[in-house]
Each structure stands twice: as C-alpha cells, then as structure tokens.
Specification:
Shape of chain B: elongated
Number of strands of chain B: 6
Order of helices and strands of chain A: EEEEEEEHH
Distance between the termini of chain A: 35 Å
CATH class of the largest domain in chain B: Alpha Beta
CATH topology of the largest domain in chain A: ATP Synthase, domain 1
CATH superfamily of the largest domain in chain A: F0F1 ATP synthase delta/epsilon subunit, N-terminal
Number of helices of chain B: 8
CATH superfamily of the largest domain in chain B: ATP synthase, F1 complex, gamma subunit
Largest sheet of chain B: 5 strands, mixed
CATH architecture of the largest domain in chain A: Sandwich
Strand order of the largest sheet of chain B: 3-2-1-4-5
Pfam families (chain A): ATP-synt_DE_N (PF02823)
Number of domains of chain B: 2
Strand content of chain A: over 45%
Subunit structure (chain A): F-type ATPases have 2 components, CF(1) - the catalytic core - and CF(0) - the membrane proton channel. CF(1) has five subunits: alpha(3), beta(3), gamma(1), delta(1), epsilon(1). CF(0) has three main subunits: a, b and c.
CATH topology of the largest domain in chain B: Pyruvate Kinase, Chain: A, domain 1
Radius of gyration of chain A: 16 Å
Helix content of chain A: 10-25%
CATH class of the largest domain in chain A: Mainly Beta
Protein name (chain A): ATP synthase epsilon chain
CATH architecture of the largest domain in chain B: 3-Layer(aba) Sandwich
Number of helices of chain A: 2
GO molecular function, one term (chain A): ATP binding
Oligomer: heterodimer
Family (chain A): Belongs to the ATPase epsilon chain family.
Distance between the termini of chain B: 34 Å
Strand order of the largest sheet of chain A: 1-2-5-6-7
Number of strands of chain A: 7
Shape of chain A: globular
Strand content of chain B: 5-15%
Helix content of chain B: 55-70%
C-alpha cells in the first residue's frame, strides 16, 4: 500500500474535496502529471481536463476542472480550480458554450499574442471534450 | 380630526404595509442564511490562495507582473464601489457610498484624481447625481439570482483591462464586510497593486517562509504570477460580492424588522384613537336620544 497524502480541491464557491489520496492525476498546463506522496514542491497552472484521484480508501474519484492551478508542497496537493465538477454530472455538450466563447475570443483577438493564447485554450477545451461522455 | 372612516382606512393600509415588511424580513432572513453560507464556502479558496501567494512572494520582484507591483505611480485611483441592486435595506447602500466618497475627498485633497466604477444599481443611482463625470462604468447583476465566480470574473476582467490600458494606477474595493446580522462594516481595500505582506493574518505568512522549500515552477514563476495575480484580484472581488450579498440581506432584515415594529406601534396608536372616537360618537348619540326623550 502506497503512502497517502492530503488532497484538496477548492473552487471559489466551495471546498469540494478534502481527503487522503494515494495518487492524483492532474492536467497541468504543460502536460498531465501524477502526484504521489512525497512529491517535490511544485506549482503549475491547469488546463481544462479531468482530475483522477485514487483515494486511500481505494475509491477512485473523477472531477472535471476548468482553469486554476495546482500547488504541491509538503502538506499535500491543493488544486485551486476556477470551475470544478464531479465528472459524473458532466456531459460533453456542457462544454459547447465555453468552446463557442473561446472561439469567439480567438476570432475577436486583436493581437497575435492574445489570439495564440485563445487558440491554445480552445484546443485544450476541445481535447477535454473528448474525455467526457457525449 | 380624521373621521372614523378615514381612521379605518388608515389602519387597514398600515396593516397591509406591516404584512409586506414582515414578509420582506422573512425573505431576507432566509436569503441571508444562503448568502452567509456562500461567503463561508468561498473562504477556503481565499485562504489557499493567500498561502500560495505568500509562497510566491519570495521570488524575484522584478519578474512580478505590474498588477502585483503597480505602475510605480499613484496618480489615478479607481474606486470600485459594490452596492446592492435593491433598496429598502436601511442605510446599507448609503454607508458604502459614504465611505467611498470620504476616500475620494481624501485622495483629491492630496492632488490625486479619482475614478469610480459602480457595481450594483443603487450605488450608481446614488453617485451619478454629482459624480457622473467620474464614473467610468457601472454594472448590475440584477438578473442573476446568486453571484458566483462568473460575475466576479466579469468585474475583474473589466478592472484588469482598464489597468492594462493605463487608465488608473491604484485600485480600491469598497464593500460592506459582514460581521453579524446587526452590524455590517463598510470597508475599503486596496487590490492593485497587490501587496502580499499587507494582507491581514500573519499566520499563513509564517508557514510560507518557514517552509523555505524550493519550489519547481511550470512554466516559470513569472508565468505563474501572470496567471495568479489576475485570479487573485477576481477572488478578492468575489469575496467583496459575497460579503456584500450577506451584508445586504442582514441590513434589509434589520431594517424590515424595525419597519414591522413601527407599523405595529402605529396600528396600536391608530386603534386607540379609533376606539376613542367611536366611543365619543356613541356617547353623543346616546345623549341625543336621552335628551330627546326628556324633552317629550
């Protein structure tokens, strides 16, 4: 049995999850990564995607997050997500609205810089959509 | 002297007013509970955000984005004034605006220029009379039944856009901090430039510096700060919105409670004078009958 660590998922509206976990897969902005206990202190921004937590009880929890960042320190892993929801309640079509908005932002962007950012975000959203049930 | 019929009408209208204020008080009470819950639920996020920020505070200040360090000037101040969209909540809106106006006078006395951004309809109504040239924008969330992160993000994006366009140097938020049902404290808080050290409780801070661990950053500290500072501003705005929502309901509850009580007092007084008059009328009628009978 692997060591467990404290995993917390907070959204601005509430504390969604605060439990001991064995491993958590997090969609980092520069690629997915897995956090296990005694992970080196680490901080990154998140891209939209699925967080999969293996809790120490053996249960597996899937949550969909959009925007935010992850903070790994000696106390455990804290995810600060702008939006987070249990994946069971989510369907791919719920993302369509955000995809539309992101597409519009990309089209309206005046600078290449912002357009590039919007495009990146859009592709992340599109990728995230494939992970969800239709 | 009002006639009996007038008094009766008066009593019935005060009674229906009392019913309305009573209902409003109860609605406010239940909304207050929800608003308080929402404000409490938002707290963990703000706390974590704070500890993350204090972890980051140690990094190279030169790399920090302008939103954190400021423009280096403090000539133009933006005051974001959060008020309710509805009235009938006692001095709630007025006291927030008053607080902001006091700050404005203080700043202007020091030769700074001041701009206003009104969040909430009532504050806008109160200020536009004599400050219309200073109000840059106003927004109201009347349609959304409960404020959440999306609303805060709207305000935040607007503020950040304005900052990036160089329209102001320092940004303050004005809202009512919810203490309890009876007390709401109008508060001013500076968000841009954000200074982590200034933030209230020192406890988190110590934890951050004690840890002294070297973090790895992805993409890099500056990149994270770029992402984090705007987010922090939105969180502060969300906090202001939520605190305000709770305070508004609290203030309305108290205001409506005293209105209900006043209506009760008034009904009592009116009923006394109504009964007196009725009695006087009966007495007059009796005297008339008796004296009529005696005359026969």
């Amino acid at each position: 049995m692997a060591d467990s660590f404290k995993f917390e998922l907070v959204s601005p509206e509430k504390l969604l999850l605060s439990e001991d976990a064995n491993s958590v897969v997090v969609p980092g902005n520069e690629g997915e990564f897995t956090v296990m206990s005694n992970h080196a202190p680490f901080m990154t921004t998140l891209k939209p995607g699925m967080v999969t937590a293996k809790l120490s009880g053996g249960e597996e929890k899937k949550l969909f997050v959009r925007g935010g960042f992850a903070d790994v320190n000696e106390n455990g892993l804290t995810l600060l997500a702008e939006h987070a929801e249990p994946a069971d309640n989510m369907t791919a079509s719920q993302l369509d609205e955000h995809i539309e908005a992101a597409r519009k932002r990309m089209d309206d962007a005046e600078h290449d810089d912002t357009r590039f950012k919007a495009e990146e975000y859009l592709s992340q959203l599109l990728h995230a959509k494939t992970q969800l049930p239709a | 002297m009002a006639s009996l019929k007038d008094l009766r009408n008066r009593i019935s209208s005060v009674k229906s007013t009392k019913k309305i204020t009573k209902a409003m008080q109860m609605v406010a009470a239940s909304k207050l509970r929800r608003a308080e819950e929402a404000a409490q639920n938002a707290r963990p996020y703000a706390e974590r955000m704070h500890s993350v920020l204090s972890n980051l505070a140690g990094i190279n200040q030169n790399e920090a984005p302008k939103l954190m360090t400021g423009t280096g000037k403090d000539d133009v101040h933006l005051l974001v004034v959060f008020t309710a969209d509805r009235g009938l909540c006692g001095g709630f809106n007025a006291s927030i605006v008053k607080k902001a106006r006091a700050k404005q006078r203080e700043l202007e006395a020091n030769g700074k220029s001041v701009k206003f951004y009104a969040v909430g309809k009532k504050g806008y109504d109160l200020m536009r009379r004599d400050l219309s040239d200073k109000i840059v924008d106003s927004i109201s969330f009347r349609e959304s039944s409960r404020v959440g992160f999306d609303e805060a993000a709207q305000v935040g994006d607007k503020v950040i856009d304005m900052f990036e366009a160089g329209e102001f140097d320092v940004c303050h938020l004005f809202y009512a901090e919810f203490e309890n049902v009876m007390t709401q404290v109008p508060t001013g808080q500076q968000v841009i430039p954000a200074s982590v050290e200034e933030d209230e409780d020192g406890e988190n801070e110590k934890k951050g510096s004690d840890a002294g661990t070297t973090y790895e950053y992805e993409p890099d500290p500056a990149g994270i700060l770029d992402d984090l500072i705007p987010r922090n501003i939105k969180i502060q705005i969300l906090r202001a919105l939520l605190e305000n929502a709770a305070s508004e309901q609290g203030a309305r509850m108290t205001a409506m409670d005293s209105a209900t009580r006043n209506a009760g007092d008034m009904i009592e007084k009116l009923e006394i004078s109504y009964n007196r008059q009725r009695q006087a009328q009966i007495t007059t009628e009796l005297t008339e009958i008796i004296s009529g009978a005696e005359a026969l």
